């Protein structure tokens, strides 16, 4: 039952990530995206805390931190890149 619940959570967050990537296009990931993904994960799990090992939060957090260190826009990680990682590895 726990695995089924986790799969439902992953599916909900993945759908929200897909919708977000369509909305924001190819803009680099920043901290506001991380906050939005974490909020989506909390809604999907119906909890008031960000789940550890979340579907998209960890990847987005890494991307936002990396993007903050880069100056060239074309080198920065986009939300669509985060979505691709989530689809492949989760």
Describe the fold and architecture.
By secondary structure, this protein is mostly helical. It has one domain (2-89). The chain has four helices and no strands. It has helices at 2-24, 31-45, 57-69, 79-89. Helix 1 packs antiparallel against helix 4. The chain is globular, with a radius of gyration of 13 Å. It holds the Pfam family SMP. Belongs to the LEA type SMP family. Residues 17-69 form the SMP domain. Keywords: Repeat. This is SMP domain-containing protein.
The structural class is mainly alpha
Global shape: globular
Let me know the average pLDDT: 78
Number of domains: 1
Helical percent range? 55-70%
The total count of strands amounts to 0
Brief sketch in words of this structure:
The chain has about 90 residues and is mostly helical.
């Amino acid at each position: 039952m726990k695995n089924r619940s986790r799969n439902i959570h992953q599916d909900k967050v993945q759908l929200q990530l897909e919708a977000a990537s369509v909305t924001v296009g190819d803009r680099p990931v920043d901290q506001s995206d991380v906050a939005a993904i974490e909020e989506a994960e909390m809604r999907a799990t119906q909890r008031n805390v960000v789940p550890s090992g979340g579907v998209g939060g960890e990847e987005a957090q890494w991307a936002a931190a990396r993007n903050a260190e880069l100056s060239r826009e074309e080198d920065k990680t986009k939300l669509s890149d985060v979505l691709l990682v989530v689809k492949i590895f989760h």
